[in-house]
Design goal:
CATH architecture of the largest domain: 2-Layer Sandwich
Order of helices and strands: HEEHEEHEEEEEEHEHEHEHEH
Radius of gyration: 17 Å
Distance between the termini: 36 Å
Number of helices: 8
Largest sheet: 7 strands, mixed
Shape: globular
Number of domains: 2
CATH topology of the largest domain: Fructose-1,6-Bisphosphatase, Chain A, domain 1
Strand order of the largest sheet: 3-4-5-6-7-8-9
CATH superfamily of the largest domain: Fructose-1,6-Bisphosphatase, subunit A, domain 1
Structural class: alpha+beta
CATH class of the largest domain: Alpha Beta
Length: 267
């Protein structure tokens, strides 16, 4: 693909910007040079989130001034009908970041005409850059990745996302079902990293009752391009309202959809 292709240019830009932002986040994490606050119960916020998002937005706007922008921490720029829009989480896994746990990432996705065309997730503590463009495959630090060969829930490792929006009862019910299948439930505190772990075979699946677009769009692109399954997150205005999500190795798709019974995801 030539470098003058608009999607390829956006992928290259997203990779460079994610690395730059990740370097800033890593430095602030290692220096512990930030204050912690809360947007709501268990909804952590640091000034590093806002600073990093501002830098990402500025870099992308300089490169693509007509593109829209949606970030977790800011109102962003207006999104034109059609065209391109960036969807960004400057630190996915802020609770880990705030508590000194080195498991968080920068997540950058680009939608064009309503389709997820580019996804980049950068883990600055492990220096792992996961990247994909629609139709171009998925890679980690330049090497192709693919999901696991799992075909049975009974031996699967499944990330079960948690947030207060889904409610305690539904979360505990889901955890119970996952354990009841014989699977090993995990929670690592970053939806974006959970998704790229599915894409690269480190996890067999990821399920959550509700997740926001900035937490998952980049990871969705990467899972799909790696050959995995992801539910239709953008249905029913998922970009603005969020949605439930199921992502998995292809061999678990049917069993997982039928067994997870997430509202809004039909078998």
């Amino acid at each position: 693909m030539s470098d003058d292709d608009p999607t390829q240019l956006r992928l290259l830009a997203a990779e460079a910007v994610a690395r730059e932002a990740g370097t800033l986040v890593r430095q602030r994490f290692l220096n512990a040079s930030f204050e912690v606050s809360f947007k709501g119960p268990q909804d952590y916020l640091t000034e590093v989130d806002g600073e990093t998002e501002e830098r990402i937005a500025a870099r992308l706007h300089a490169a693509f001034p007509r593109d829209g922008f949606i970030g977790e921490e800011t109102a962003g720029r207006p999104v034109r009908d059609g065209g391109a829009v960036w969807v960004v989480d400057p630190i996915d896994g802020t609770s880990n970041f705030a508590r000194g746990v080195a498991h968080f990432c920068v997540s950058i996705a680009c939608l064009i005409d309503g389709a997820i065309e580019v996804g980049v997730v950068y883990d600055p503590m492990r220096d792992e850059l996961f990247a994909a463009r629609r139709g171009g495959g998925a890679f980690m630090n330049g090497a192709p990745i693919r999901p696991s060969d799992a075909t049975s829930l009974a031996i699967a490792c499944i990330e079960v996302g948690w947030n207060v929006r889904g409610g305690v009862k539904r979360y505990l019910d889901l955890i119970g079902r996952v354990a009841g299948w014989g699977a090993a439930p995990f929670r690592i505190g970053s939806g974006a990293l959970a998704l790229v772990y599915v894409a690269s075979g480190r996890r067999d699946a990821f399920v959550e009752h509700h997740i926001n677009a900035w937490d998952c769009l980049a990871g969705i692109c990467i899972v799909r391009e790696a050959g995995g399954y992801v539910s239709d997150f953008l249905a029913n205005d998922g970009l603005k309202k969020g949605n439930p999500i199921i992502a998995s190795a292809p061999g678990l798709k049917d069993a997982l959809i039928a067994s997870a019974k997430l509202e809004g995801i039909a078998p």
